[in-house]
Each structure stands twice: as C-alpha cells, then as structure tokens.
Amino acid sequence: MGEGQEVRGGDLVKRHRLFTRVWHWVNAVAVFVMLMSGLMISNAHPRLYWGEYGANFDRPWLDLNHYLPGGRFPGWATIPSTYSLADGRLWHLAFAWVFAFGFLAFLIVGLVNRHIRRDLSLKKGELAPRHLLAEVVHHAQLKFPTGAAALNYNTLQKITYILVLFVIFPTLILTGLCLQPGLSPLTGWAIDLFGGRATARSVHFICAGLVALFIVVHLLLVILAGPINEIRSMVTGYFRIPPDPAPKPEPLPDGEPA
Fold first, then answer.
1. Which of 140, 151, 163, 198 makes an SS bond possible with 49, Cβ 3.0 to 4.6 Å?
2. 3-state secondary structure of 98
3. What predicted TM-score, i.e. pTM, was given to this entire model?
4. Closest of 116, 153, 106, 150 to residue 242, by C-alpha
C-alpha cells in the first residue's frame, strides 16, 4: 500500500512482498526438516555436555534417556522415521544449506528494501517498562491490534523477531558449522569461542529448542488472531484489516427512558 495511505477496518491491503512470502514458506519447510532430522541425530547419542569433549563415560548436563520412552525420540517426530544416523545427517545437512543461504538472502533483501529498518527497529519509548507491561497485559488478554495498527509489529513482536533473526539463527548456523569435522580448519576459532565442540553441540540443541518454542507460540497466535486472514496474507500477500471494536453506548442519565 502507498506511504501514508489511510486504511480502515475491513480494507484488504497488500501486506507481504513476494520475496518475504517465498522465504517464509521455504524457511518453514527447511526448519521443520532440520528439527525432525536433528532429533534423529540426537537419538544416536541423546546426551549433552559442556566443554571440549563428550562421550559415554563423561558426565552430561542433560541426559535425554531419563525423559524419553526407550531413550529415543519417537519415529513420528524424526526424519527418517526409522533409526538411521546416516540418513538423518544427509537430510539435516541438505536443508541446513537451504536454511543458511535463504537466511542470507533474506538479510540482504531486507537491508536493501529497508524492511528490517522500517519494521523491526525499536522506536523511542517502546522499551519503557510501562509500555512493555501494557503490551504484555494486552497479549495475556488476547487483545490483538485493530485498524491501521494491525499492519505494524508491536514491541514484543519486534523484540522476538530481533532475537530470532539476529541472535538465535546466526548462533544456530555457526554452531552447526562447528559440528562438521571437515570444516574444522575454518571453524576452529568458533569452536574455541564456544569453549569446545561439546559446548557448541549443546548450544546448537538449545537454539533448536528455542526455534521450536517460537514456532509453537507463532502458530498459536496465528490461530487466535484468525488463521484464514493470517495465512492468506502469507500466501497471496493481502491482509484484511481487523475492524476497530464498536464503541460502547453512553449510559443514559438516571430516570430517562431507554
């Protein structure tokens, strides 16, 4: 929609550009495949450690054997569904490159078309405790923005997207590279930065868990905000502005008939 163009509740407006929509769905597929194949890889050794090394006789900080039936993630949650570390790694690495290069393209395009600066930059006052508390209360009460405000990210969304895009995703990619022995000559500095390959694996697992949590919350909010409108905007680019709530009628003075 044009700059400064007025919108009203019920209007159908262009919200997402083609590149954003394509990246969103390609990225969604890549992330789901990586999460499920990552669980298969984890099944080969479901223990996590801090430091340089981690093996059967070392003490893990997390032993998934204590939490998973049979000590493994179930087949319906993994790719492939039957145990195969080699196939799990093939799936994981193939879609990791799709994810990494797609993310790089998103950053480049987002900087060129100013999407990142325009939609994700935090404005003065948005980090004020009173403002943040008000947004938390509105979210807890499931009060979603209406009118023109529905086209902009609120502060909690901006903070979440900034953390996911500029902290979690880069850390996920970097730790993933640290776990490839063939890349050790190039990633040795990063392995040292994390304090060892075992630590990099733990951080990689934690970041993957945070991505999974983000997806769950994201899908829940899409359902609560109106899945048809939200999904249509990410498929066609067009979004229908939620109407402002109707004003409550003024109470009549005492003694006057209604």
1. 198
2. helix
3. 0.87
4. 150
